Amino acid sequence: MDRQAALEKLNRRIIACRLCPRLREYCQKVATEKRRQYRDWTYWGKPVPGFGDLAAQLIILGLAPGAHGSNRTGRMFTGDRSGDFLYQALYEAGFASQPIARHRQDGLSLRNCYITASVRCAPPDNKPTPQELRNCHPYLERELALLKNMRVILALGRVAFDTCLVWASARAPMPPRARFHFRHGANYVLHGGLPRLFASYHPSQQNTQTGRLTMPMFERVLREIREFLSEPTAE
């Protein structure tokens, strides 16, 4: 089976997943009740698969789908303020074909970039439980195994950062966890030929509206990633 077929098979399994009853119930409840401005939408209301370029060197890892964003549209970071911020920045950095993400058929494509999440269902209050994170982790492991060209993982937020470290520690000897401090703009070399880990605050509406994360701050991280990717790989 080629990688594209394998990814499509994995995505079908993700969409059909029912391992976390609390999350499935919440996603369906949101999809039924809706927000007033989306009352004419048929919500996706299911786990959301990853999205992007299978040959990507840059993998962006978020927390989880937004209740009225990805849970509504069925595509990562699509249809809410977080996505507005993220795709504008990715477009300016050359990783996205357009700065706007509204729905799955809006023509958006990613270039050398793939977006996924630690949890594939929208959690209440954006807080998945440790068990829900563990339930979803095997999907991320299989997904990353198919992304053969990845050289960078950009973790959006502390949960995504910790998820990356869990993934990496299962694949290569790692320094003590205390050496990895989550802070915006940090980046770490991982052992065993694993990708470079970059960290950013999550582009949540709370972070961007309060100024904790500004567009220049995020653009600086993407610029550093582009510079890293422009360097030749070791033979």
List the helices and strands and how they pair.
Elements: H1 3-16, H2 21-33, E1 51-52, E2 58-62, H3 70-73, H4 81-92, E3 113-117, H5 130-146, E4 152-156, H6 158-169, E5 187-188, E6 196-200, H7 205-210, H8 215-230
Parallel strand pairs: 2-3, 2-4, 4-6
Antiparallel strand pairs: 1-3, 5-6
Helix pairs in contact: 1-5, 4-8
Q: Determine the CATH superfamily.
A: Uracil-DNA glycosylase-like domain
Strand order in space, largest sheet: 1-3-2-4-6-5
What structural class results from the helix and strand content? alpha/beta
Identify the CATH architecture: 3-Layer(aba) Sandwich
> How many strands, what sense, and barrel or not for the largest sheet?
6 strands, mixed
Gross morphology is globular
Helix content: 40-55%
Number of helices: 8
Strand content: 5-15%
Summed over residues and divided by their number, the pLDDT gives a mean of: 96
The end-to-end span amounts to 28 Å
Supply the number of structural domains.
Answer: 1
Order of helices and strands: HHEEHHEHEHEEHH
Q: What low-confidence regions span 5 or more consecutive residues with pLDDT below 50?
A: none
| CATH class group | Alpha Beta
Radius of gyration: 17 Å
CATH topology, by name, is: Uracil-DNA Glycosylase, subunit E
Report the strand count: 6
Highlighted features:
single chain; 235 residues; alpha/beta; Uracil-DNA Glycosylase, subunit E; 6-stranded mixed sheet; 6 strands
